[in-house]
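Saturday, quiet lab. Running sequence design on the structure tokens for the scaffold JK sent over.
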């Protein structure tokens, strides 16, 4: 299953299991582009987690996508696993555990 824009995924091919916020999905190439969840400001992570409206979440992801300071990673969909739901709660909880 291809993750949607705004989902949080983990890269299953790496031992560190980094989490990405999906900013773009290319179904034709079976790839997705995302930014490291850990690189997002705490306020941004909180806004994404509390955005219950899919339209609002898409607006937030668009703002993240337009930020030039964040590194972007393009990876094959098959190398990703989506976290529970959209993954914000699990990713935010894991961020706290990693600190």
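Result came back. Writing it out in full:
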């Amino acid at each position: 299953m291809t993750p949607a824009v705004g989902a949080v995924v983990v890269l299953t091919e790496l031992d560190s299991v980094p989490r990405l916020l999906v900013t773009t999905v290319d179904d034709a190439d079976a790839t997705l582009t995302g930014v490291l969840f850990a690189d997002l400001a705490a306020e941004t992570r909180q806004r994404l987690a509390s955005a219950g409206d899919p339209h609002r979440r898409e607006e937030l992801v668009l703002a993240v996508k337009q930020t030039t300071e964040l590194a972007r990673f393009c990876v094959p969909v098959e190398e990703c696993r989506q976290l529970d739901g959209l993954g914000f709660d699990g990713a935010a909880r894991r961020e706290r555990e990693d600190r």
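Notes for JK: The helical segments are 42-50, 54-66, 88-98. The longest helix spans residues 54-66. Ask whether to fix the surface positions before the next round.
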